[in-house]
């Protein structure tokens, strides 16, 4: 019975995530229709955005990494906080769709094609990352989109992209704060925390846990090198 209820709730959530009207209602952003198989946002995007709106200042320079087809986080922060935003994604097709949505909103946001920090040359105060954390097998069994697999596929145990992100974050030359959103249905905190603790130049500052959604946001600080 519990599994059946969980399945029903999950299907309902996926329908909301694909709703252009719901996305506009929640984020106060205009959206171009996305292609079949894509979605406007997920639960992690929602929780991350709500938290960031309380934390980001107008003077902050923000990198929205893994921005997704609609650049929701980047556009929302630009529109409501007035901060400088650059968005990036590893998938060229997603970059193109995100750029269209940025232009649709007449936002002065650059969308870059980049594998994590690979093509990021600027310095930022804040990095926002809603990483792919769904284990490959689970995503395949759930019929998640193959076309947009880069948005959800976190490898065998869901942690492969996050591990690479932490490796590269540690190499950033200046001090920066990273907000990383995780759905613990797929990647529990007990797996993620040791990855941070292994990095001598990274410090976990805080964990925000949503009241009823299975989402945690980890605030990680890259210490300044001397």
Automatic annotation (TrEMBL):
Name the record gives this protein: Methyltransferase small domain-containing protein
Gene Ontology MF terms: nucleic acid binding; protein methyltransferase activity; S-adenosylmethionine-dependent methyltransferase activity
Pfam (any one): MTS
KW S-adenosyl-L-methionine (keyword) present: yes
Taxonomic lineage from the root: unclassified sequences, metagenomes, ecological metagenomes
Biological process terms in GO annotation: methylation
PANTHER family with a match to the protein in the record: METHYLTRANSFERASE N6AMT1 (PTHR45875:SF1)
Family from the record: Belongs to the eukaryotic/archaeal PrmC-related family.
UniProt organism field: marine metagenome
Domain Methyltransferase small: 49-139
